[in-house]
Amino acid sequence: FFANVELVPGDPILGLTEAYNADARATKVNLGVGIYYDEAGRIPVLDAVREVEQRLAAEAKPRGYLPIDGLPDYTRATRELLFGAESPLLAAGRVATTQTIGGSGALRTGAELLRKTLPHATIAISNPSWENHRAVFGAVGFDVVDYTYFDPATHGVDFAGMLADLRSLEPGTVVLLHACCHNPTGADLTDAQWRQVIEVLAERDLFPFIDMAYQGFDRGIDEDAAAVRLMAESGISEFVVASSYSKSFSLYGERVGALTVVSATAEQSRAVQSQIKRLVRANHSSPSNHGAALVAGVLGSAELRARWEAELGQMRERIHALRAGLVEQLAEHGAPEFAFIQDQAGMFSYSGLSRAQVERLRDEFGIYAVGTGRICVAALSLGNLGYVAKAVAAVSRG
Length: 398
Ligand code: PMP
Prior knowledge:
Blueprint: H1 12-22, E1 29-30, H2 47-59, H3 72-83, H4 88-91, E2 95-101, H5 102-117, E3 122-127, H6 131-139, E4 143-148, E5 150-151, E6 156-157, H7 159-167, E7 174-178, H8 191-203, E8 207-212, H9 226-233, E9 239-244, E10 256-262, H10 266-283, H11 290-299, H12 302-332, E11 348-350, H13 355-365, E12 367-368, E13 374-376, H14 385-397
Parallel strand pairs: 1-12, 3-4, 3-7, 7-8, 8-9
Antiparallel strand pairs: 2-10, 5-6, 9-10, 11-13
Helix pairs in contact: 2-11, 2-12, 3-11, 5-6, 5-10, 7-8, 8-9, 12-14, 13-14
4'-deoxy-4'-aminopyridoxal-5'-phosphate (PMP) binds next to helix 5.
């Protein structure tokens, strides 16, 4: 049966980590990952999470199945975090949230839902975008097209190009939008630009699909949700949000995400949710409990929530400090042209380094980055900033 099965290449970013692990140099640095590391180079376990985990272990509750659409305390808290607890959409019963296997599972389930319900299966993603967007939507039969997004000259958003491309899409096209901390570029829209994008989406009858994998990683929980909040306030009555707690709770391996669908009426919302439950039932039947129980435990307690917000704030501030420090050290090493890194948001920066420069960083300095020049700022530390800045300055001069 498998004699003719072809070997396909592995994920290039995961391959990078394998090469990094095999590198014997003590000064090696892995900037290819998509994970936040603390100053000691570890993935943090947040205090608020640890406290809930200890309580859950002590309680040792029976391990029954969760409902198909997940832990109710988790999905309710997620809706409130996305839209704000006072959102009229929530009160109107127009928002249905399903617990998913990470943000990736939310994208996949959302893609399957839209594949069945929208007039034609085309999705426009930013150029560039997180590579898995193309894979996930392609896997369920979408035609995946690009819209202009990043401007290599300014290292920011080519906003005029983006609007022009959105305007040229067929009505009914799904448009995938990164709410904040754009992966891979770090280039985000301002709130004023979001308003303009929303106007074009409404005018052209495009279907918004917001991916929010980094809420709280740039400006704050509410501020980073501006795209969702502005969309909710606009005349657009139907849209989808895929969200993830992988980064904001540092719970990568627990696979905690959610698919949230806004419908025009409460009745339609119930029908949509029934369809989603059918999709989940045929995929994995019901989600797993532990990660969701951790998140719900934190968000359901005023004290733990405040502690989580403070810890999230510390991660965010540390990323800002690393960006500022990197820019400062690069300037000191004669490379002031990297000042844009400070204007970019979230874990990633499209550094502008070429593939050849990225290879030199790896070969000469043991610094690993993605071939596109994407670096993970959140994987730097104050201890290795100087080394990385010196190396980047050296390869960018050569
Ligand atoms: N969307 C984007 C833009 C991401 O960067 C990621 C994670 N790297 C995801 C979705 C998926 O998140 P998760 O790991 O929770 O599946």
